[in-house]
């Protein structure tokens, strides 16, 4: 599950213009990976405070749609 989540987010973020695509530096990739791991850990431990710290001041968390 961990690797799937990291790969999915790493693929999705450049698609939405959140991360630079193509020529990302190693330091950018390492920083992005660290944030993704922190986010995963916070979600897996239900640590709302840790999740909130990973968002910018104007970040928005959208709930999943119920079908």
| Major sheet | none
Helix- and strand-based class? Answer: mainly alpha
Number of helices: 3
Beta-strand portion reads: under 5%
Total DSSP E strands: 0
Q: N-to-C terminal Cα separation, in Å?
A: 23 Å
Fraction of residues in helix: 55-70%
Q: What oligomeric state is this?
A: single chain
Domain unit count = 1
The sequence of SSEs as H and E is HHH
Radius of gyration: 13 Å
Mean pLDDT: 75
Unreliable residue stretches = none
Short description:
58% of the residues lie in helices and 0% in strands. The protein has 3 helices and no strands. It starts with a helix and ends in a 14-residue tail after the last helix.
Structural topology:
Layout lengths: L1 H14 L10 H19 L3 H6 L14
Helix pairs in contact: 1-2
If you had to describe this structure to a student in words, what would you say it looks like?
- The protein is mainly alpha-helical and 67 residues long.
- The model has no long low-confidence stretch (mean pLDDT 75).
- The chain contains three helices and no strands.
């Amino acid at each position: 599950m961990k690797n799937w989540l990291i790969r999915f987010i790493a693929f999705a973020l450049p698609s939405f213009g959140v991360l630079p695509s193509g020529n990302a530096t190693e330091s950018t990739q390492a920083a992005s990976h660290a944030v993704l791991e922190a986010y995963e850990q916070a979600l897996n431990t239900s640590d709302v405070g840790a999740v909130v710290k990973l968002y910018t001041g104007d970040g928005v968390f959208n709930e999943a749609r119920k079908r």
